[in-house]
Amino acid sequence: MSEERENMEWLNEYPMLKQLSAVNAFKVPANYFEEMEGRIMDEIKLAQLKQAYPQDGFVLPANYFDELTQNINSRIGIDEVLNNGKGFTIPEGYFEQLTGNIESRIAVDELLNKSPGFTVPENYFDQLTGDIESRIAVDELLNSEAGFNIPEGYFEQLTGNIESRLAVEQFADNEKGFIVPEAYFEGLEARIIQNTINVSAPAPTGTAIVRKLWTTTAFKYASAACFSLIVGAAVLTSEFNDTAIHNRSDLHKALSKISKSDMENYLELNGDASTIMENADPNSLTAISTADADDSTTDVLN
């Protein structure tokens, strides 16, 4: 006991040692002896490599440690796939489509590397809501069972409808067009009633006897002479009336498309001949009467 006490008293002379724990400070790392053989073999191989290449030694590739984690993970993934029973399988038609896939990928990369990139059209987002709603409406109509129905006889009447529409547009584009007299519609109903309902039937006066004032032969010669005078006057005045004839040609072409029965029905429903005579130009009436005279003369000669 005295010896142990003496051995412990010397610690009082060294305060730093007295503060240390009496437990052993040296410890062997875990699995030290199990891995010692492998570490020794690695050291031996390293020494052999140093002896084989004393000048060059080992050179680390550029960015070795930066790519080390990624390389290890990729190697682990490859090992897992190799240990799998299935392994790698080539998709169907892989080599046939390989060239096209590579070219398309190159085209995409070229577009992505361009500085402009993708551009949004002007007012794209302002019109986006309306475009989406219109597209939804179109899809709903396309998916509808009823759909669009073609009227009966649509294609049979299509040509006639187009021609009539073109004729109406030609009339609408004409500068002059038809002119209605002033206050024409205000007294139209009263004039129609006066000329239709209020007209009393004339009293019968018996059989009328028609007597010819001239003989047929003399009337033929007189009609031929009048016709010759009218033709000569028309030839002389044709040079001065080219403009007027040209202006009336469009109306003549338009009226030629209207059937005779439609004209007769219109005149029967709208008996406004007296109003037109009151508001008409005397010069135009003279031209109409001259044309009627030509027609009557031609009928007589025939």
Give a short synopsis of this structure:
The chain has 13 helices and no strands. The chain has helices spanning 2-9, 15-19, 32-52, 68-83, 94-113, 124-143, 154-173, 188-196, 216-238, 242-256, 260-269, 273-279, 282-301.
Number of helices: 13
- What fraction strand? under 5%
Shape label: rod-shaped
Question: pLDDT under 50 segments (min length 5)?
Answer: 285-302
Straight-line distance between termini: 175 Å
Write up what this structure looks like.
Residues 285-302 have low confidence and may be disordered. This protein is rod-shaped. Among the domains are: 2-83, no CATH class; 157-196 and 214-301, no CATH class. The protein is mostly helical and 302 residues long. The protein has helices at residues 2-9, 15-19, 32-52, 68-83, 94-113, 124-143, 154-173, 188-196, 216-238, 242-256, 260-269, 273-279, 282-301. It has 13 helices and no strands.
Task: Record keyword descriptors for this entry.
302 residues
Fold blueprint:
Layout: H1 2-9, H2 15-19, H3 32-52, H4 68-83, H5 94-113, H6 124-143, H7 154-173, H8 188-196, H9 216-238, H10 242-256, H11 260-269, H12 273-279, H13 282-301
Helix pairs in contact: 9-13
